[in-house]
Design brief:
8 strands, globular, eight-stranded mixed beta sheet, alpha+beta, archaeoglobus fulgidus dsm 4304 fold, 6 helices, 234 residues
Length: 234
């Protein structure tokens, strides 16, 4: 799959912050209502012993059956700096992306979208590279304030940017009685639609199926075909 090269990756943290500030205004938070979503992708990166391994798994939607998976790995080339995750994970994600045979209609990242101090988390940043609708589905909050959603599955509280007092994401109870997940629009999608898709990708577990499959693939825990049969009872 192709992507559009926007900038260099071999930059300093200070240069990375400048890049985020320059590209954040290019993010579009509007969903094309004519778009039909038949495939969704989950993206995850694991880092072990200085090696980054990215996995992308494609699933049918709304059935959530995985049908394609790719991985890539390389030495980790950027330090861990809060708010600069894209510069650590972006290059290896794009390498894995180049190996896909199918272009998904929607991509869910294990990370932030615009719920970020500079409005350009992993999902938003790579959404610009891929020129596709993207959603950030994070296990924890990076930025913003919120009330607690109700305990029932599907309950939502707005995640608010305290500087501008406007919503930048949703705190979603994806499974009753568990900690919520943090959903924020990445690119080419609005907050409400992003939240609806994230919930639709959650089945029996707290994390979306997109994230669960990509996480397993990034750790090499199971081949896609074998894992799919086990999940479906085949």
């Amino acid at each position: 799959m192709d992507d559009v090269a926007l900038h260099r990756w071999d930059v300093t943290p200070e240069e990375a912050v400048a890049i985020q500030r320059a590209f954040a205004p290019k993010v579009r938070l509007r969903w094309d209502r004519r778009r039909r979503v038949k495939t969704v992708a989950g993206v995850d990166v694991s880092v072990r012993n200085g090696i980054s391994r990215a996995a992308i798994v494609l699933l049918s939607f709304p059935q959530l059956v995985p049908f394609e998976a790719v991985t890539a790995e390389a030495p980790t080339g950027f330090p861990y700096v809060s708010g600069l995750l894209t510069f650590r994970e972006g290059p290896i994600v794009l390498e894995a992306w180049s190996r896909l045979q199918t272009t998904p209609d929607l991509v869910l990242f294990d990370g932030q979208g615009i719920a970020h101090p500079r409005r350009l988390g992993l999902a938003s940043h790579l959404g610009l590279w891929l020129d596709l609708p993207t959603i950030g589905c994070a296990k924890s909050k990076l930025y913003g304030t919120h009330d607690s959603p109700a305990d029932e599955k599907g309950s939502v509280a707005k995640l608010i940017d305290p500087r501008l007092d406007e919503p930048i994401g949703s705190v979603l109870r994806s499974r009753s009685g568990t900690k919520p997940i943090y959903v924020s629009p990445g690119h080419q999608i609005d907050r409400e639609t992003a939240t609806q898709f994230a919930l639709a990708c959650c089945s029996r577990y707290r994390l979306p199926e997109t994230t669960r499959w990509a996480h397993r693939a990034s750790r090499g825990e199971a081949r896609l075909e074998a894992a799919s049969r086990a999940e479906t009872g085949g």
